[in-house]
Design brief:
Elements (H helix, E strand, L loop, with lengths): L30 H19 L2 H10 L8 H18 L5 H24 L2 H28 L3 H18 L18
Length: 185
């Protein structure tokens, strides 16, 4: 009589026999890195809210007065670009949420400017918002579709916008009429 050998198919590797390899867990971030991330998020929200006194003054006075809208528009553009950066592969959810909150805050601020501006100011704000929406609607699909590293592209654009945003207050520096006067700055 013939004896049947015990045959196992586990070593052959048929599909479905062996469990799929599990991805390795992400590397653990150390506490210092997490602390810096949290501080960055806190400071970013503080940046968004730093414009609140100006907006409150507009709300109370029911007029824009001497307040300028351009830095609110630049901050909105910054939030949009950095949110797109966070949506690129791999997506960073806290980064996206934080910038979405910034977009909401800036749109609220711009809405108040829109309500309490003179007609020419309303036209400027409306044109700015339309240009931002149009540029975002064109740029985002193009960058995500036609570039191999959308984070690099959005990072470079975001850096440029951030330089404009943080450098904006420098345009308010007072120029001394007499060059012989000493400036405390």
């Amino acid at each position: 009589p013939c004896a049947m050998a015990d045959v196992s198919f586990g070593s052959i590797g048929f599909a479905g026999d062996a469990p799929a390899p599990q991805p390795s867990p992400p590397p653990q971030q150390d506490r210092a890195e997490n602390a810096f991330l949290v501080l960055g998020y806190v400071f970013t929200v503080a940046l968004y809210l730093s414009q609140a006194p100006t907006v409150w003054g507009i709300w109370v006075a029911r007029q824009v007065g001497q307040s300028k809208v351009d830095m609110f528009v630049v901050t909105l553009v910054s939030c949009i670009v950095w949110m797109m950066y966070g949506l690129a592969d791999p997506p960073t959810l806290p980064f996206v949420i934080l910038n979405a909150v910034g977009i909401g805050i800036e749109l609220l601020y711009l809405g108040l400017f829109l309500c309490f501006s003179e007609p020419w100011g309303r036209i400027k704000i409306t044109i700015s918002l339309a240009l931002i929406a149009g540029a975002s609607a064109i740029a985002a699909p193009c960058v995500f579709s036609f570039t191999s590293d959308p984070q690099l592209v959005f990072g470079i654009i975001g850096d440029g916008v951030s330089i404009v945003m943080y450098g904006g207050p420098l345009r308010e520096v007072v120029v001394l009429p007499n060059p012989n006067l000493c400036s405390p700055f």
